[in-house]
């Protein structure tokens, strides 16, 4: 088995009533897990990146980071191994996937890219504490990126490698079927 791959996503505004609050924080707090979702718009992730992620044979995890001033890791999310990210199907005649309104994505993004073209399907979510990874704050403004050697968030990768085994052993996970 390959080592896990890690990615980071900045979730945007996390205040009450915003997209991240509506579709992740509030359902997590209320244990209404069927409403939990996260997606990205077409400017955030390329089709090539999606193909590579879907083809990867090991486990893939995403760390959700809220924007400033709450720039700390919120959750470590394990993606399902097959078709972890896919394009949403929203018509034109029948919506196969939930609409933005049904999910709770009612706020406009910072740059007005509100298409939320791709959706993430999580297998397991590990809620994190504010001081996880020694309170490491993600560097850079990129919305979605791989955490790997040779880039400015290499310290985050070191902390993930160090704490990962403890997170999956001691943090109460939320499992999806």
What does this entry look like structurally?
The protein has 177 residues and is α+β, with helices and mostly antiparallel strands. It has one domain (5-175): ph1033 like fold (Roll), CATH 3.10.590. 24% of the residues lie in helices and 23% in strands. A six-stranded mixed β-sheet has the order 8-1-3-4-7-9, covered by helices on one side. A hairpin with a 7-residue loop joins strand 3 and strand 4 (73-79). The longest helix has 17 residues, at 154-170. The two termini are 22 Å apart. The model has no long low-confidence stretch (mean pLDDT 82).
Q: What descriptive keywords fit this protein?
A:
alpha+beta, ph1033 like fold, three-stranded antiparallel sheet, 4 helices, 24% helix
């Amino acid at each position: 088995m390959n080592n896990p791959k890690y990615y980071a996503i900045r979730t945007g505004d996390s205040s009450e009533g915003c997209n991240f609050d509506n579709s992740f924080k509030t359902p997590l707090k209320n244990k209404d897990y069927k409403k939990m979702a996260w997606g990205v718009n077409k400017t955030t992730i390329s089709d090539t990146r999606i193909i590579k992620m879907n083809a990867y044979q090991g486990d893939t995890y995403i760390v959700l980071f809220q924007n400033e001033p709450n720039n700390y890791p919120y959750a470590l999310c394990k993606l399902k191994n097959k078709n972890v990210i896919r394009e949403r199907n929203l018509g034109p005649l029948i919506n196969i996937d939930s609409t933005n309104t049904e999910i709770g994505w009612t706020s406009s993004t910072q740059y007005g890219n509100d298409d939320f073209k791709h959706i993430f399907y999580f297998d397991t979510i590990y809620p994190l504490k504010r001081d996880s990874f020694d309170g490491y704050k993600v560097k850079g403004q990129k919305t979605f990126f791989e955490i790997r050697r040779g880039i400015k968030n290499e310290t985050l990768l070191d902390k993930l490698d160090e704490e990962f085994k403890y997170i999956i052993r001691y943090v109460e996970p939320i499992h999806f079927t």
